Automatic annotation (TrEMBL):
A single GO molecular function term of this UniProt record: DNA-binding transcription factor activity
CDD domains to which the protein is assigned, alphabetical: SIS_RpiR
Domain SIS: 123-255
Residues in HTH rpiR-type domain copies: 1-76
PROSITE patterns: HTH_RPIR, SIS
Keyword Electron transport: no
DNA-binding found in the keyword field: yes
High-level lineage: Bacteria, Bacillati, Bacillota, Negativicutes, Selenomonadales
Name of the protein in question: Transcriptional regulator, RpiR family
Biological process according to GO: carbohydrate derivative metabolic process
Keywords: DNA-binding, Transcription, Transcription regulation
InterPro entries reported for this sequence: Homeodomain-like_sf, HTH_RpiR, RpiR-like, RpiR-like_SIS, SIS_dom, SIS_dom_sf, WH-like_DNA-bd_sf
Source taxon at top rank: Bacteria
Length: 278
């Protein structure tokens, strides 16, 4: 059930909780910039009440509430009316065209809104300092790893991704501390990737996680975590949304590297295009 549906139902909430709900529903555009303390002050309640409300509806805390609420509120001109993004057996090809475009655009916008510029700067610094970039991913996420690896090569960073799981283990076991590792995991709970991260930690390799869930088992093992949008049901293309948002994140990183090393990157790719021009 969607968060806005739960809030609009007005069931089983205390008077204090209802005051908080009424405020965020009416001032939904402000929520992304409000801390728990800010919201408490505006509703004449308390930070503890804000956190309790978040937990009462099944979330870990206000930070998760803010992400989910903002994500859903962005889909509508006001929370009173939804764009229905779920794919159903009643959809026509035209409605599917609209829904898929809207879902992917929203995922990228949600990801953009959550990006911490300081964290991007730290990540770019790690990439710049690394002798080699290694990618670790399973199943569908290998598609993103391969695209990112190819882009980083064009940016002048030696990069590797192995499709076979056993090769990824060997890659981790052989990685020196001069390497940087990217782990791509939607849930942050993939057991094989957790084992790989533990190996990398013993090798003193810096790890950057791209994920849709925070916190998770992998976030505890990684040096930097880049959050991307994905928390949707299967009929809202949850898995595909993660791929779109993760690709956007890697496109941002590549573009920052391109801008930072503009002349050398441009020269390298102009030479590449001359060789492979048809």
């Amino acid at each position: 059930m969607k968060l806005l549906d739960i809030l609009k139902a007005k069931e089983n909430f205390s008077p204090t909780e209802q005051v908080i709900i009424d405020y965020v529903m009416e001032h939904y555009q402000e929520v992304a910039s409000l801390s728990a303390r800010d919201l408490a002050e505006k509703t004449y309640t308390s930070s503890a009440a804000v956190v309790r409300l978040s937990q009462k509806i099944g979330l870990k805390g206000y930070a998760e509430f803010k992400i989910k609420f903002t994500s859903e509120a962005m889909r509508v001109s006001s929370p009173a009316g939804f764009y229905e993004n779920s794919i159903t057996n009643k959809d026509s090809i035209l409605s599917i065209l609209d829904k898929v475009a809207r879902i992917e655009i929203e995922a990228i916008q949600e990801t953009k809104n959550e990006i911490n510029v300081g964290q991007i700067i730290k990540t770019i610094h790690l990439i710049d300092q690394a002798e080699h970039i290694d990618f670790y991913a399973m199943d569908n996420n290998l598609r993103i790893a391969k695209i990112a690896c190819y882009c980083f090569l064009h940016a002048g960073k030696l990069s590797t991704v192995n499709s076979a799981v056993n090769a990824q283990y060997v890659q981790a076991l052989a990685s020196p501390r001069s390497h940087v590792a990217f782990i791509i995991s939607r849930t942050g709970e993939n057991n094989k990737l957790i084992e790989i991260a533990e190996i990398l930690k013993t090798r003193k390799v810096k790890i950057i996680l791209v994920t849709a869930v925070k916190p998770s088992s992998l976030t505890k093992l990684c040096d930097e975590t880049l959050w991307v949008s994905s928390e949707r049901e299967f009929n809202e293309l949850g898995t595909m949304v993660f791929l779109s948002a993760a690709k956007y994140m890697f496109d941002v990183l590549f573009s920052v590297l391109f801008a930072k090393h503009y002349e050398s990157t441009l020269s390298r790719n102009e030479f590449f295009e001359k060789i492979f021009r048809v």
